[in-house]
Amino acid sequence: MTETEHVKCLIIGSGPAGYTAAIYASRANLFPVLYQGLQPGGQLTITNDVENYPGYPDGINGPQMMEDFKKQAERFGTDVRYGIATEVDFSGKPHKVTIDGNKVITADTVIISTGASAKWLGLESEARLNGNGVSACAVCDGFFYRGQDVAIVGAGDTAAEEATYLANLCKKVYMIVRRHEMKASVIMQERVKNTPNIEVLWNTVTDEILGTDVVNAVRVKNLVTNEMREIPVQGFFVAIGHQPNSDIFKKYLEHDENGYLRTIPGTSKTNIDGVFACGDVQDFMYRQAVTAAGSGCMAALDAERYLAAQGIH
Q1: Contacts of 49 (CB under 8 A, 6+ apart)
Q2: Residue 103 β-bridge partners
Q3: Which entry of 49, 79, 89, 140 is annotated as an active-site residue?
Q4: Which of the residues 46, 95, 153, 166 could staple to 137 if both were Cys, CB 3.0 to 4.6 A apart?
């Protein structure tokens, strides 16, 4: 038989948004239950130094920051659990969410903070060598390539940050950029340009990652000259953006063409009463830890007010 449990406030996903929502919901006596999802702590668990979050003048390690958020949420009474939401039914009330395919949680309010996941290039060799030289997390795996040559593909802030991080560990970093310019912020571009062991390959795409069991080179193509070039590397990192983890909600919740959940401007409210979205699953613009945390606060406050209006105590 399927196990069923009713809660007043269910939070799906962790990270700055989910944990902040949990802190506020707990303090409002909503007795939240939070399921951490596939990546407990969210994207910050693959970020080494967080330097732009207020209150940390010397910066903080991303995983440690998320552990602090979790402890704070638990201190106020949040029930933090391992588990993945596999199905939802928002067609009636209470809302129904299936966890791990075998447990149904009915909830008066649901806060979605499932975040976003790394995008991949889609190469066969990328999938085959994933974990054997191919990675989407420089902070997680950069240590294994200390003193070696690596390549990273991407042109945004994440790619620039990870390239400079790798440059502190590796002998040489090749940064593969499709266009003649980067999308990264000016300060991050300056860091890349001022790092002597980063070589930017402009107007270049990845044709293939080479190696039988492990990565030993990358073949790239210059889009201006059509020249192919093989570069010996031992690691290949992908930093080309993210996609929102919103698939299971799309049947019921409005979303944009890229899958980001739509919320009513100035709120965390979705098109379904009692269902709220916060963090990167609904934020395609800013995608920062501090904005995710702020939206998590909004979601908890919106949930509290919704429950009060419904007379649910």
Answers
A1: 59, 60, 61, 62
A2: 3, 99
A3: 140
A4: 46
Determine the straight-line distance between the first and last CA of the chain, rounded to whole angstroms.
30
Cis amide linkage into residue 94, ω under 30° from 0: yes
Is residue 297 part of the annotated active site? The answer reads no
Among residues 49, 79, 89, 137, which one is catalytic? 137
Please check whether residue 42 is in contact with residue 12, taking contact to mean a CB–CB distance below 8 angstroms: no
Answer yes or no: 137 catalytic. Answer: yes
CA dihedral 270→272→258→260, nearest 10 degrees, is: 40
pLDDT, one tens digit per residue, over 155-206 is 998 899 999 999 999 999 999 999 999 999 999 999 999 999 999 999 999 9
**pLDDT score of 140:** 67
Phi, psi of 66 (to 5 degrees): -70, -35
Active site residue 108: no
Catalytic position from the list 141, 157, 283, 302: 141
DSSP letters, the chain, are: --EEEEEEEEEE--HHHHHHHHHHHHHTT---EEE--SSTTGGGGG-SEE-SSTT-TT-EEHHHHHHHHHHHHHHTT-EEE---EEEEE-SSSSEEEEETTTEEEEEEEEEE---EEE-----HHHHHTBTTTEES-HHHHGGGGTTSEEEEE--SHHHHHHHHHHHTTSSEEEEE-SSSS--S-HHHHHHHHT-TTEEEETTEEEEEEE-SSS--EEEEEETTT--EEEE--SEEEE-S-EEES-GGGTTTS-B-TTSPBP--TTS-B-SSTTEEE-GGGT-SS---HHHHHHHHHHHHHHHHHHHHHHT--
pTM: 0.77
d(CA 52, CA 187): 13
